[in-house]
Amino acid sequence: MNTVNTKSALLSLTILCFGIFAQAQNNSLGKNDPGAKKVLDGLSARLKSYKAVKSGFTLKVQDQKGAVMGSKSGTIYLKGSKYHINIPGGQDIYCDGKDTWTYDKSSNEVTITKSDLSTQTLSPDKFFTNFYDKDFLYKLNGESKVGGKTVQEVELTPTDKTKSFFKAFLYIDKTTHTLVSVKWLDKGGNSYTLTINRLNGNAPLTDADLAYNKAKHPGAEEVDLRN
C-alpha cells in the first residue's frame, strides 16, 4: 500500500470503524448472547450521556501475516450530527449532517459531497447516538487486562454478507463502560485496529469548530459533487 493510498484508506477506515460499533445492538435475526447485550447496553448508555466529543484515535492496518501496512493518528470532534475528523498533515473531513467537505492538504483541494443516507451507518455521529440497529450478531468472548484495565471483548458478525469485513471485535472497559479499541477483519485477510484515547465527552465545541472554513484553507480548489 503506497503512501497516498494509505492516507485515503486510513481515513475511510476510520469512519467505517466509528460506524461499526454504532450498530452493535438488538439484532432480531439470530440468537445473541445476553451477556454481550448487557455490556453493549452499558456502552450505549455511556455514549448517549456525552454532549459533545473530542477524542484522539490511532488506526493501524496489518496484513494477514501481522506486518504493519500503515498507521495514522488523529482527532475527532463531534456534536450532534456534525463532526470534524482531523489527521495532522494529511486530511480533514467536515460534515454538517447534510453535506461533507473532505480537504486534502497535499493537493490543497476540498471535495464537497452530499451525505449519503444509504451509507449513514458509517458516520461518526451514529457511534454516539444510534445504538439499536439490526446489522450484527454478537457474543461476549471474555475478559482480559489491558494497561491495568479489565476489558471485555464483544465479537460482532455482520448479518449482511456483502460487507467488506466479516468480523469485528469491541474492547470495552468493564468499570467505566467506555470503548478502548475496535479490531476489524476484512475478507482480504487484513486487520484494522482503532484505538480510542483522551476522550472528552463534554468538550466545549461550537458549530464553527465543526464547519469547513474557506479562510483557513486559502487557495484551495473546490470540487463540488453535490449536483
Note down, in words, how this protein is organized.
- The chain is α+β, with helices and mostly antiparallel strands and 227 residues long.
- It has one domain (3-224): Clam (outer membrane lipoprotein receptor (LolB), chain A), CATH 2.50.20.
- It is built from three helices and twelve strands, in the order H-H-E-E-E-E-E-E-H-E-E-E-E-E-E.
- It has a twelve-stranded mixed beta sheet, covered by helices on one side.
- Strand 2 and strand 3 form a beta hairpin.
- The longest helix has 18 residues, at 3-20.
- The chain is globular.
- Residues 1-9, 25-29, 117-123 and 125-133 have low confidence and may be disordered.
Tell me briefly what this model is.
The protein has 3 helices and 12 strands, in the order ααββββββαββββββ.
Taking pLDDT < 50 over at least 5 consecutive residues as the criterion, the unreliable ranges are 1-9, 25-29, 117-123, 125-133
Q: What is the SS-derived class?
A: alpha+beta
- Over the alpha carbons, how many angstroms does the gyration radius reach? 17 Å
Number of helices: 3
The main pleated sheet reads as: 12 strands, mixed
Strand content: 35-45%
CATH fold name:
outer membrane lipoprotein receptor (LolB), chain A
**Average predicted local confidence, pLDDT:** 79
Q: Which CATH class applies here? A: Mainly Beta
SSE arrangement, N to C: HHEEEEEEHEEEEEE
